[in-house]
Amino acid sequence: MEKNPLRASLLILWLHLGRVSSMLNVEQSPQLLHVQEGESTNFTCKFPSSSFYALHWYRWEPAKSPKILLIITVNGDEREEGRASATLNTNEGYSYFYIKGAQPEDSATYLCAS
């Protein structure tokens, strides 16, 4: 299939701010992200480092239940699933979630929970 150079595909990846079940706040950024098809991008999740057990990254598509993408429990660890990966720093209380070569099917809400 030939691509039309005059028409740019726009991929929209959504992030949703949420609270975890233990009522600890997690901060996700950016809240809304527009990415061109084929570009790579990342999201940040900040959480209280003193109360860490495990970090979950979810993907939530409209009219579907959230799906667990990655679970990370060890400081300094990196997990990968297809074009998605995540790193974890429990000492400073953050995780990065990356999508390599974003595609239209990546458009969804992404959530983190600690």
What does this structure look like?
With 114 residues, the chain is mainly beta. The protein contains no helices and ten strands. It has strands at residues 10-15, 27-29, 32-36, 41-46, 55-60, 67-72, 78-81, 84-89, 94-99, 109-113. It has a five-stranded mixed β-sheet with strand order 3-1-10-5-6, with no helix packed on it. The protein has a five-stranded antiparallel β-sheet with strand order 2-4-9-8-7, with no helix packed on it. A hairpin with a 2-residue loop joins β7 and β8 (84-89). The protein is globular, with a radius of gyration of 15 Å. This is T cell receptor alpha variable 24. Keywords: Adaptive immunity, Immunity, Immunoglobulin domain, Receptor, Signal, T cell receptor.
Query: Nearest-angstrom radius of gyration?
Result: 15 Å
The percentage helix is under 10%
Q: Please tell me what the overall shape is.
A: globular
Name the helix and strand elements from N-terminus to C-terminus, one letter apiece.
EEEEEEEEEE
| Major sheet description | 5 strands, mixed
Discrete helix count? 0
State the distance separating the first and last CA atoms. Answer: 42 Å
Number of separate strands: 10
Poorly predicted regions:
1-23
- Main-sheet strand order equals 3-1-10-5-6
Helical/strand content category: mainly beta
Strand-residue proportion: over 45%
User: How confident is the prediction overall: mean pLDDT?
Assistant: 79
